[in-house]
Amino acid sequence: MSENFRQFLERLRSEKELIDIKQPVDIRHIATLVDQSEHALWFHNVIGYDIPVVSGIIRTKKRAAMGMGVNDWNDIEGLLERGIRKPLPPRHLETAPHKQVIQRGEEVDLFKLPVPMSSIYDGGPMITAGVVIAKDPEFGLNSGMYRFMVKEKNLTGIDIVTPNNMRLFAQRAFEAGRPCPISISIGTHPFEIMGSGFRAPLGVDEMGIAGGIRGAPVELVACETIDMPCIADAEIVLEGEILPTGWVYPEGRFGEFTRLMGGLHWNPQVRINAVTMRRDAVYYALHMPWENTWLAAPTRYTAIRSALKTAGVQVKAINVTLGGCAFWHAVISIKKQSGEGKNALLAALSVMDLKHVVVVDDDIDVNNPMDVEWAIATRVQGDRDVIVIPGARAKPLDPSLAVMPPGVVPTGAKVGIDATIGEGIPKERFERIAYAYADRAKIADYVAGKADPAPAVQGADDKIIADAAGKIVALIEKMPLYYQDVAAQLAEYDFQTIARALGQLYSDNKLWQDPRGRLCLRDSAFAAKPPAKAG
């Protein structure tokens, strides 16, 4: 798909998913207005700034799907899988539209960019939509999404407290006493945002994955002041260096994907050497948490599916839940073979920062919280089916963790619940209540006046009852049948006649039940045997 950032915005507008706000708006109001809006918003006249602001463009499931060029949000996982399986190396261009305005050195003034505040406890304006490309002498390029708190005209922080490849690059540069060069591309298509949000293995460039997702190479161009590429389609690019200061400068707080305020973090600083932008640049402010959520969740789906495939477990469905902030909770249904509930748990809990995993059978709807809770209530014994793994790597943004000293990566517990039917337990214990004739007996029809025809044979005289009883014996001597099945197969009789005929068979000591409760003949091979007497 060759669509660029601006064409995506135009498509949102044409499908009435984006509203243009053309009157003057105070930048301090932007985050609140986006939070209240069901649409993406384009603020054309931000008071005190020459650059307009767009926000909320992937803030709903529908717009996230639109950004990926699919009709159904669930299809995003397939695109990501394609990107991982068939990455396309980026294409390098000689120049790009964001080279129309180039500011270097003393010309750099981040305060001229309309970087809005987000929540009321934020430590300062945060650049939230920057696709960051970094380079390590040994491991090559890495892309990711990080936030930058604007501090001075040419100085920001960068939030990299979570262990990942970007932190590793910065740490290696710090230990070598050198800066780590980075480009920060702002205003890029959701394809690049999606690709950069995937945690690829060390040495794998996420822009190749973004190209695979897009179905066409991502176009890059060289920066002006550092030996780094940046995204050619970007509206604005910041060229900077993570300074070799270490994690010693306070940054934050900030409203996180957890829907909570994060704490104060200690981070390195970034010096911005140059700003390049289009003459009519648009600043994209990614709005937390939901603009992060809808493209983050599919990356978990893909990683979970891959882990379970490696473990040899057949997956039916996955739900990385919104209640778990699209990072920490997964419900997985599997086509289970013996012992695979536990294997599935161990495989899934190894994925990214997943914290709690529930594995269910394939008859459970993973998207229905009541169905999942019902599986836990009816299929779990805590001493047998709950696994706790202590001392696992944890995400520092988890507010339930103890406060750790700066630079110390926290550990926490991972919990798995095997809510599949246990080995050796009869499956008939889990046959759900179902109602007969649900395919044709519809309440709306009866409210509208529908009447059922009377059965052909009615009345309860001895001959009719004996005739019905004989037919019942002929049916159940071949195979056991549920009471309702008998009534359905003898539909020519009214129900009272069938009930009396069965009553007669009980009275004649002919009728019995098999172990599943179906009707059979007392002396047949199907008949249930009473339990042995105790003692």
Question: What can you tell me about this protein's structure?
Answer:
The chain is an alpha+beta fold and 535 residues long. It has three domains: 5-290, Electron Transport, Fmn-binding Protein, Chain A (Pnp Oxidase, Chain A, Roll), CATH 2.30.110; 311-428, 3-Layer(aba) Sandwich (UbiD C-terminal domain-like); 444-521, Orthogonal Bundle (Arc Repressor Mutant, subunit A). The protein contains 15 helices and 23 strands. The chain has a six-stranded antiparallel beta barrel. A five-stranded mixed β-sheet has the order 17-18-19-21-20. Strands 1-2-3-16 form a four-stranded mixed β-sheet, with helices on both faces. Helix 4 packs across helix 7, helix 4 packs across helix 8 and helix 6 (190-197) crosses helix 7. The longest helix has 21 residues, at 290-310. The radius of gyration is 32 Å and the shape is elongated. The protein starts with a helix and ends in a 14-residue tail after the last strand.
List strands and helices in order, with pairings.
Blueprint (H helix, E strand, L loop, with lengths): L4 H10 L3 E4 L8 H7 L3 E4 L9 E3 L5 H7 L8 H10 L5 E3 L7 E4 L21 E11 L3 E13 L2 E3 L7 H11 L4 E7 L3 H8 L8 H9 L4 E4 L6 E3 L4 E7 L6 E3 L13 E3 L1 E9 L5 E3 L4 H21 L4 E6 L8 E6 L5 H10 L6 E6 L7 H11 L2 H4 E8 L17 E9 L23 H5 L14 H15 L6 H7 L5 H13 L3 E3 L5 E3 L14
Parallel strand pairs: 1-2, 3-16, 4-10, 18-19, 19-21
Antiparallel strand pairs: 2-3, 5-15, 6-7, 6-9, 7-8, 8-15, 9-12, 10-11, 12-15, 13-14, 17-18, 20-21, 22-23
Helix pairs in contact: 4-7, 4-8, 6-7, 8-9, 13-15
